[in-house]
Amino acid sequence: MSDVIVITGIADGMGREVAKMLVKEGHCVAGFDKDKELLNSLSKELESIDGDKVYLEDFDITDRNRIAKFRDKVLEKFKKVDTVLSNVGIGFFGPFEEIDLEKALKCFEINVIGAAAIFKAFIPYMRSLKRGKLIAMSSLVGRIPFPFESIYTATKFALTGLIESIRYEVEPFSIKVALIEPAQVSTKFAAKIHVLPPSNSPYFDRVKRFINRDNELIKTAPDPVYAAKKIYNVVMAKNPRLYNQIDFQSTFFLWLNNFLPVKLRDIILINYMDIKPR
Predict the structure, then answer these.
(1) Per-residue pLDDT tens for 235-273?
(2) How many beta carbons lie within 10 A of that of residue 210, not counting itself?
(3) Mean pLDDT of 4-12
(4) Nearest C-alpha neighbor of 33 from the set 6, 73, 3
(5) What's the Cα-to-Cα distance from 137 to each of 36, 65, 141, rounded to whole Å?
(6) Centroid of chain to Cα 120
(7) What share of the chain is helix, strand, coil (3-state, %, to 5)?
(8) Which carries the bigger pLDDT value, residue 154 or residue 248?
(9) 4-272: CATH number
(10) How is the chain split into domains, by residue range?
């Protein structure tokens, strides 16, 4: 029997690849994204596989009223929802001293409240049937703080805390929750946010070295298809683990974070990202 999976941020990257895998395997996918052009191209791809198993809308995750209407339409079309995958998110980069707090607020609105909104919309339905899965796309930086990504790190820490807390509330109703924590995936995500500060910034040199190092890591990072296969396995698991990594690098760094003294962990991170003061 096919499952029905809701995916936010479905039009590009890992969300897009997961959607294609699910439909190819005979499952139904409902999702939304604000990028109309990419959403239209995805719609054509999915409809060429099986249009009856697809429902897509274009709107922004911050539109709460649309989320409620979207939920109702999905349940009307497919009669059920088995899993909600919160994949929507934006990056945020820069020295904390120099960031725009209004833009930072938007990052929290999308990355944290956006996930909360989609989960909140479907929990009553899942609770009534005593089944379902809520999966959030977090990040390695949801448990390991990264320099020059303070706001993004904070949103992912918040998302991790949200899921960990929700778990205690919904598991008595047989609703499973899970986090997916990639380190790097070779998408355009990082390139969109990597912006050097002004040359007279006291952080300029270290930020430049951080970006160069990050770009090197992206070259050897898993691609969205590889990542999507890992995510697909979590989505389809009957009892997914709470924490799920995409690659060995993520698992290794989380192990270091959990077991090494903070000072030693910091030394490794600073040297690994080439941001030691010179």
Answers:
(1) 999 999 999 998 887 888 888 888 899 999 899 989 989
(2) 20
(3) 96
(4) 6
(5) 22, 23, 12
(6) 17
(7) 60, 10, 30
(8) 154
(9) 3.40.50.720
(10) 4-272
Helix (H), strand (E) at residue 44: helix 36-50
Taking alpha carbons only, the member of 34, 155, 140 closest to residue 99 is: 155
Q: Cα dist. 190→74, 90, 93, 215, 247 in Å?
A: 32, 10, 9, 8, 18
Mutual angle of helices 262-272 and 248-259, in 10-degree steps:
150
- The one-letter amino acid code at 132 reads G
Pairing of strands 132-137, 175-180: parallel
Burial profile 5-43: b = 16 or more Cβ within 10 angstroms, e = fewer: bbbbbbbbbbbbbbbbbbbeeebbbbbbbbeeebbeebb
In degrees and rounded to multiples of 5, residue 86 shows phi and psi of -85, 105
User: Residues 37, 40, 45, 46: what is their CA dihedral angle, to the nearest 10 degrees?
Assistant: 140
200-240 pLDDT, tens digit each: 999 999 999 999 998 888 888 778 888 899 999 999 999 99
H/E run at residue 58: strand 54-58
- Paired tokens of 92: 């945020």
Distance of CA 35 to the CA centre of its chain: 16
